[in-house]
Amino acid sequence: SQTIHQWPATLVQPVGSPLSLECTVEGTSNPNLYWYRQAAGRGLQLLFYSVGIGQISSEVPQNLSASRPQDRQFILSSKKLLLSDSGFYLCAWNRRSGANVLTFGAGSRLTVL
Amino acid sequence: AQSVTQLGSHVSVSEGALVLLRCNYSSSVPPYLFWYVQYPNQGLQLLLKYTSAATLVKGINGFEAEFKKSETSFHLTKPSAHMSDAAEYFCAVSDTTGANNLFFGTGTRLTVIP
Question: Is B99 a residue whose pLDDT tops 70?
């Protein structure tokens, strides 16, 4: 069966510090991978998605970047965090074809102080 | 472009009462539609999905949703609320432009009153 892992689960960082959130998927190959952000009281905002190694599409220009160094690894990064980067970050995957069902990781809560 | 609208950011029901969470979609092509549930500080879990088969879709935990094309709706229902149903619920529609993504509504927080 397929599993998706995200870490760290919780992170408190000062403004201006770097960020690295990691996501890995097991039990499948060639998945589509996604990073979403959920700010307090708001819905899910798609940040990045990837259909393959080194292929990243950005949905919203901002202070963050994403990379996919391996088929089942997706990394969300920032060089300098802003207060507005605080939120709950969710990684998700789905198959290339089919009914688009997204499977989510448990999330990473980032607080920027 | 595809989108969903969830009416009511907060819904409160008594334990044992009917749960009705509303979702209307916009799509230029026949959509795939989904309901997800999120418990505090957790990821989203798929409740059910509509993929153009039966219009009444049954999901986990006793939830079901009915696809009504004439009303462009996909409302989520459960006959009798349980305390464990308290969570946030998201409706989503498939992206048909090639990204294989989902567009999510802003969510409805369900509170169950004992």
Answer: no
